[in-house]
Amino acid sequence: MFLLSLNHKGHPRMEENLKALHHRLPLRSINQNLMPNRSPVHSRKSKGHTVLHHQPPQPHATKKQNMLAPNPSYTLDCEIIAIDDNDEDASDNAVPEFVKHTEAMLDEIDRIEEVEMEDVQEPVLDIDACDRTDPLAVVEYIDDIYSLYKKIEDSSCVSPNYMTNQFDINERMRAILVDWLIEVHYKFELLEETLFLTVNLIDRFLERQSMIRKKLQLVGVTAMLIACKYEEVSVPTVEDFILITDKAYTRDEVLAMEKLMMNNLQFNLSVPTPYMFMRRFLKAAHSDKKLELSSFFLIELCLVEYKMLKFSPSLLAAAAIYTAQCSMYQFKQWTKTSEWYTDYSEEQLLECSRLMVTFHRKAGSGKLTGVYRKYSTWRYGCAAKVEPALFLLDN
């Protein structure tokens, strides 16, 4: 390796250098032999390379001198000092410790920034913050209330194959009954929670009590009468329900069935239905009226379907909102806030959501079109006209 010591013209040592170079070959020819087509200036010192140093004169240098052509942009004389290879530092190519430390620190900062960006992009919002001044919202207890609902919802569910114990009725008859009751509910302009409680009472009663098909409609209107007494302020009379059945049953038969059902159900009417979870989950989804109506359209389609009894009320509510969002926006959407408050991930909802999409697709073409006709009216925002999220079926 060579180290160049350069002396500017006009320096006191110039005269001595000129005398020493008087009988030597021109520097240009030496430069062509030593380093053709290569720049003499390098950015790093390594074995087998030369490095230019602008140094002050060193009168006491004792190393062997050689010649190397100067950079043509400078009018300099060169003093070449040979350096033993053994003097080179063994760790010359090693990365300095402060560089390693800096790189590690930058990597850690990048990782922290990525986590922070994820948090910024998808925060979990406090959906009860706006209700803290409303005493009716019971914000202090709302989390405990829904935790209790989640714990006891299994007790309100029925076996998904209870129809095997019925000898005279089947799944199809149940579907016809529920579809008809949805129309009755619409005609009487009852609350939504009344409909969900009605269907729950029917399934829980039929799970425990065998029934002939001739009495199945009586079970339906009696269940709605009980639900109205529990949920409504203004309750339809027994005579109203008798008329809606075209006087197929008498007042005494309705009252006798009411007594039988209440005894079988042990007067337990306070059960978490999908409606209870829908209100909370819609709030977490920051829904507008359109999303709300689309969600209720899908979940009412599920009321008719016997196969949907295998899903819990909270899962049905969450899946209805998720599927409605997919139908409205035509892409998958499930926020961290919705996942936090529903306690369901997107993957957990897919099975139920795909079934809802199939119900939505055939809602207007089958024989049981009560839900479709109800949600095709302007009163319900024509929610049934929204295109189903068929892309959920692709997977």
Automatic annotation (TrEMBL):
<dbReference type="InterPro" id="IPR004367">
    <property type="entry name" value="Cyclin_C-dom"/>
</dbReference>
<dbReference type="InterPro" id="IPR046965">
    <property type="entry name" value="Cyclin_A/B-like"/>
</dbReference>
<dbReference type="InterPro" id="IPR013763">
    <property type="entry name" value="Cyclin-like_dom"/>
</dbReference>
<dbReference type="Pfam" id="PF02984">
    <property type="entry name" value="Cyclin_C"/>
</dbReference>
<dbReference type="InterPro" id="IPR006671">
    <property type="entry name" value="Cyclin_N"/>
</dbReference>
<keyword id="KW-0498">Mitosis</keyword>
<feature type="domain" description="Cyclin-like">
    <location>
        <begin position="276"/>
        <end position="358"/>
    </location>
</feature>
<dbReference type="InterPro" id="IPR036915">
    <property type="entry name" value="Cyclin-like_sf"/>
</dbReference>
<feature type="domain" description="Cyclin-like">
    <location>
        <begin position="179"/>
        <end position="263"/>
    </location>
</feature>
<feature type="region of interest" description="Disordered">
    <location>
        <begin position="33"/>
        <end position="67"/>
    </location>
</feature>
<comment type="function">
    <text>Essential for the control of the cell cycle at the G2/M (mitosis) transition.</text>
</comment>
<protein>
    <recommendedName>
        <fullName>B-like cyclin</fullName>
    </recommendedName>
</protein>
<dbReference type="GO" id="GO:0010332">
    <property type="term" value="P:response to gamma radiation"/>
</dbReference>
<comment type="subunit">
    <text>Interacts with the CDC2 protein kinase to form a serine/threonine kinase holoenzyme complex also known as maturation promoting factor (MPF). The cyclin subunit imparts substrate specificity to the complex.</text>
</comment>
<feature type="compositionally biased region" description="Basic residues">
    <location>
        <begin position="41"/>
        <end position="52"/>
    </location>
</feature>
<keyword id="KW-0132">Cell division</keyword>
<dbReference type="InterPro" id="IPR048258">
    <property type="entry name" value="Cyclins_cyclin-box"/>
</dbReference>
<dbReference type="GO" id="GO:0044772">
    <property type="term" value="P:mitotic cell cycle phase transition"/>
</dbReference>
<dbReference type="GO" id="GO:0051301">
    <property type="term" value="P:cell division"/>
</dbReference>
<dbReference type="GO" id="GO:0016538">
    <property type="term" value="F:cyclin-dependent protein serine/threonine kinase regulator activity"/>
</dbReference>
<feature type="domain" description="Cyclin C-terminal">
    <location>
        <begin position="272"/>
        <end position="389"/>
    </location>
</feature>
<keyword id="KW-0131">Cell cycle</keyword>
<dbReference type="Pfam" id="PF00134">
    <property type="entry name" value="Cyclin_N"/>
</dbReference>
<comment type="similarity">
    <text>Belongs to the cyclin family. Cyclin AB subfamily.</text>
</comment>
<keyword id="KW-0195">Cyclin</keyword>
<dbReference type="InterPro" id="IPR039361">
    <property type="entry name" value="Cyclin"/>
</dbReference>
